Amino acid sequence: MPEALFPPPSTVWRVALPLPLPRLFDYLPPASQADGDAAVGHRVRVPFGRRELVGVVAEVGAPEYEADPAALKTALGRIDADPLLHGELFDSLRWLARYTHAPLGEVLATALPGPLRHGEPLPDTHAWAWCLTEAGRTDREGLRAGRPRRLADLLQDAPLDEDRLDEALDDWRSAARALAKRGLAERIAVPASAHAPAPRPGPALNEEQQDAVDTVLAADGFVPFLLDGVTGSGKTEVYLHAIADCLARGKQALVLVPEIGLTPQTLARFRARLGVPIHALHSGLSDGERARTWAAFARGEARVAVGTRSAVFLPLLQPGLIVIDEEHDGSFKQQDGIRYHARDFALVRAKALNIPILLGSATPSLESLRNVQAGRYGHLRLQRRAGQAQAPQVRVVDVRKRPIEAGLSPELVDAIAQGLHAGGQVLVFKNRRGYAPVLLCHDCGWTAHCPRCSTPLKGTPMTVHGGGRRLQCHHCGTRRPAPNACPDCGGLALQSQGAGTERIEESLSARFPDYPVRRIDRGTTQRRDALEQHLAEFGTAPGILVGTQMLAKGHDLPNLTLVAVVGIDEGLFSADFRAPEKLAQLLIQVAGRAGRADKLGQVLLQTHHPEHPLLHTLLTGGYAAFAETELAQREAADFPPFAHMALLRAEAQDVDVANAFLAKARRELDAFADPRRRPAPGQRPALEINGPLPAPMPRRAGYQRAQLILTALERRHLHAALDAALPAIYACPEARKVRWSLDVDPIDL
Ligand code: ADP
Ligand code: ZN
Ligand code: ZN
What we know:
seven-stranded parallel sheet; Rossmann fold; binds zinc ion; single chain
């Protein structure tokens, strides 16, 4: 009777492991009492093959996933005394796993900082301080003059944090050791948030700002707001007031900003105004620092986090408010691994936490504007610039049939000269870095293409860099020296075609030798704080900034009076249905940099397409008019936000292999299309599948890339088909031969 000899275990841990398999893994609890009782949310160590993995108990119950209970392995033990993940955060992460159709274990691995993911204990979050002992207080007066005495005097009234001591006394550590040895002082752990500057008041709010703040403060429970305010209208002031109120009620606030918006200035502004420590989370931190911040929130010690995308995974024990600044920004969407959208996940969390959420932008995403239209979000508008600043004047410069040198028309150069002579600063915006986009042989027509990205049908030009000496592919990073002679015809007439930021910089430096010209793009500005440093060094004296969209953000340039936008024409004719939205947002953001203080700003748009409807609508009606038109077009064409998309991507060395996988996936998805939902003639099906199609970049870094596009008018049809088909897609033999990924709500197709 094998059952009696091997009774099926009554309880197993169903563990989420960081593996690309859409399931949990059953383990027997270890026999020892201390390790043996794990609950949902505990981290545990388990054997897996020959490895040892760290996972999280997702369920406790009867075995479900192993076919043969006798083959169950025993877990090695739990890691924490208490579950690390619980409550709202764990529930929301489970939701995210279902929504992205990703394995829970991989979602958890994305959400947790590295050290926690790898099983390290929740780190200490306290700071250290020094204080006098009883004996120290009595004997202080008797100490000889010297450093120990000075330290004892400093500690006379209250303990001091070690960072305070660093500022107050050189080499205080040896003095502290001397006092400690004699039993006069001791080191104590204090909460990390022990001291912070006293809050400083900001400017008095104007009427629009006050209305917005009042509306947010009156919100009870989950209410999403779109704070739709032109650049410089004082949105950040509205956030600060709402957060201050939240702190006064003893609650925590989470602020998400795009990577480029998280500058030391932003943090200093929040710190100074709120008077509490601000926890910053961004890509420049070490894993250890991230884990400490996570722990400070998990313990409920921290009050305010300002962070980029991944800060959306912080635990909030006393939640009060979530703010998403620049909510339209594409950097909130993770583009590899678990493809989540931090704004959308923040909305899910705000709902689960039952708190208000404030989405701010001068150029809101069409998704958010649609939610306003549909009555799902409150709409708060700031239509005037705060303080003295006025909106800039915008003018189109028609360059058809005009001579253009290094990308600049004579009109533009004249305007730049005038701006400089009047004592102002000028920003020249060109969204293409490098010297020139193409290297061309004037004799035979050869152009330099990337060997790893191009196909015979679709060439991918390499960008010219280094003043014409180097070639670089902006898609895969391949570099090579520029040839001296044409590889095809041997001719010497190689020419750089068009202009990137480098060439514009060169040309402007030659034309305006008396003024500083500074280039800001990924070539010059790789380090996190490099942008702020460049802008600080640029100062306020007359001069020219040349750069890419990096320049759309960064700290205020009060003396910037002219913004010249060149080379937006590529964006006007892109195949991507989101291209007009991205271009309009970029133009408004860049234009918004002009005239931020008391100086009137001017914006010049140089184009070959002055009659283009996008430019026309934007210039006559502003972003709101553009968005309205664009939403109507999306609706007519059944594009998001009126339909819901998912993208199944595959890449392989051989295009047939990628396509075979996608064809198999398509058959699985087709099989689950509900026959009762077959569309009547002329109607759209519940789920439309297109592909396998070549990706917009059909070959990149030597890989052939293809995709399936899934579109549904109702989200549930999309998810139902994916839920039904994915197990077979994961399991099929074709899947093992490709790199594949699923992207729900892709932002570029
Ligand atoms: P946004 O976030 O909308 O770009 P900010 O909040 O950064 O705008 O404000 C832009 C500038 O205007 C800042 O220098 C800010 O200090 C100032 N400002 C904001 N609100 C007011 C106000 N009510 N009165 C005077 N100045 C203000
Ligand atoms: Zn040639
Ligand atoms: Zn390439």
